[in-house]
Amino acid sequence: MIESAQLESAVDEGAVAAPERKAEGSTRLLSLDAFRGLVMTLMLAERMRLPEVARAFPHSALWGSIAFNTEHVEWQGCSLHDLIQPGFSFLVGAALPFSIASRKRKGQTFGQMLGHAVRRALLLIFLGIFLRSLGSRQTYFTFEDTLTQIGLGYVFLFLLGFARVRTQVVALVLILICFWAAFALYPAPAPQFDYSRVGVPPNWDHNYSGFLSHWNKNSNLSWAFDVWFLNLFPREQPFVFNEGGWSTLSFIPTLGTMILGLLTGECLKGKGSKEQKLRGLVIAGAALMLLGLLCQWAGICPIVKRVWTSAYTLYSGSWVLLILAGFYALIEWKGWQRWAFPLVVVGMNSIAVYVMAWTMTGFFGNALDRHLGKVISVMAGATFQPVLHGFAVMLIFWFILLWMYRRKIFLRI
């Protein structure tokens, strides 16, 4: 979660007992930090390899559900795992109104804030490319991961942070409509299109027919753009397709997700009772879910994360809003805060979590294998060994983050 770098982070453990920081115009919501911590924890949970474990229980509905929700869907649809990146992006937007208010209180000018936003955007892009290049023989220039997607749209988001709410809504609607129209106007793959050339089985179950074929994997507008754009950079081999169907142009609807967060942040920072704000989150979430599903049911636009369709922006945004509503209800409305402390520890240092996940997972995993591998195998058995091993790595990360939290060490961009 990049947005933890956007908020003032001078906190101690005792602050968890207070749901808000009463600085005029820049109140910090503990529910946002806790939700951010959940998103980061879901990302780290990949280490437990739950889909792999689920294969040992092919007839279990419970394990089938766990497997579905801990990995990306192949194309159409949305799992809990598919909500991690929208959660990142949404919370960047939700943090922005608080960040702007804080910087204004410090006397920063618009020019100073804009310069900082540009630097942050560039750093996010460069950090994303750097992390993806680990283990490669040369720089691996792609732009579809979380950090670069947020970085590509961040300056636009920052500028919208100074606009009226009506302008923000118009920008969101234009992004959704124009991105949908661009895909719809790009020629659909011909019946004789050679899908095997772009890494897609010819009889793949997830290929669409008719109008929706404009969104078929590696034969759509985003794929065509990347075939041109990514080959402008030095590469070991010419870019032909992305195996997962991920694409650079997804940063445009990702900006839409960040605008949803921006609108939510404006609402939560504004006037009105907690009950009114909670009601607004639930109503907005339900409305977006209905709109996203209607787009798919009507055959207008499918819900596909890998190209971040407009319907997916609506549908994933609805789930993020509803989950945030749950956090807001428990922490801000009911005042139940202490349970969230483990998540707050993670959410307050999200840049550190992201970098650690890319650079330290293997190191700690190998260390556990070397020193405690047999113990873990005996305790968990062959089937559940990945779960206990992955949980142990997550626990190591959490104690590192707790150490940083107590010493007020927060990595910022």
Describe this structure in a few short sentences.
The chain has 413 residues and is an all-alpha fold. The protein has helices at 30-44, 50-54, 61-69, 84-105, 110-132, 146-160, 165-185, 221-229, 251-269, 274-297, 310-333, 341-347, 350-359, 361-406. The chain has one domain.
Folded structure, characterized:
- The chain is mainly α and 413 residues long.
- It has 14 helices and no strands.
- Helix 10 (274-297) packs antiparallel against helix 11.
- The longest helix is centred in the last third of the chain and has 46 residues, at 361-406.
Oligomeric state: single chain
**Head-to-tail CA distance between termini:** 11 Å
Q: Find the structural class using helix and strand composition.
A: mainly alpha
Work out the count of structural domains: 1
How many strands, what sense, and barrel or not for the largest sheet?
none
Mean pLDDT: 92
Q: Globular, elongated, flat, extended or rod-shaped: what is the shape?
A: globular
**Helix segment tally:** 14
**What proportion strand?**
under 5%
What value does the Rg take, in angstroms?
22 Å
Helix content: 55-70%
Order of helices and strands: HHHHHHHHHHHHHH
Strands, total number:
0
Which stretches are low in confidence, meaning pLDDT under 50 for 5 or more residues running?
A: 1-26
